[in-house]
Amino acid sequence: MRKDLHRLQSPISDQGLIEALRLGRDLPVISLSRSIDLRSLDEVIGEITENGIRESALDSHLVEPLHRSLRDLDESLKTDMRIWHWLTVVRYPDVVWLRWRGSVPSDPEEGFVTGNGHRPVPAVRFLGTPSINGHGRNTFARLFFAAERLIGSEGNDYALVRRLFSSQELHLGLSDREYGLLPTVNRVLTRELADLPDLLVRSGVRRLNALGGSVCLDHLEEEEISLLLHDDERMREST
Length: 239
Hints:
The protein is mainly alpha-helical. The chain has 2 domains: about 1-155, no CATH class; about 165-239. The protein has 14 helices and 2 strands; from the N terminus they run E-H-E-H-H-H-H-H-H-H-H-H-H-H-H-H. The chain has helices at about 15-25, 40-50, 55-70, 75-80, 80-90, 95-100, 125, 130-135, 140-150, 160-165, 170-175, 185-195, 200-210, 220-239, and strands spanning about 5-10, 30. Helix 3 (about 55-70) packs across helix 9 (about 140-150).
């Protein structure tokens, strides 16, 4: 098995991102003490590129091979932003551009400005931050940690994870809130809301957020969370 996964010697700042993208594989890295093989992820990314898959459609294709590749990492490495920076800036920068811009710019600086029919890509899509919200912004960390919360490091059924990423509104709502760390809440809201229009997704997320101020959600079973969500909805409809 090849030692494919690395981490950068130092995390990248917003100010240093353009130069880091230009340097790419010349950035100094540290090899990990164990082997993590990225060949299956490479294969999927190759298929995605060949088939012209772009933007939000990338998420459901990437989440399973990414999570399977990295789920055996030590917990301390999973939250090491130098690994996520290496993935976005060194190994797979084109994936970040295709996800958030739709095409790869001729020079990195071009990708951060508006023009030529393209929207600028926020630096946080490459870098994220070492926080709940920041993990939800880095292009690869957002996929990995969503899968961790929904199925755990031992899970093999990714259907619910793919459902989550069919609703960008729901994923954003979960990653922006503290209760988004709770696997039970993630599973309930994904089952209940992922197939609904964005307006109803926002309403459901805010409703549970409001209830979280008076109810300790982390002590509830999934059925109790689901009942709480629907009971509150019925109360609103009756008033």
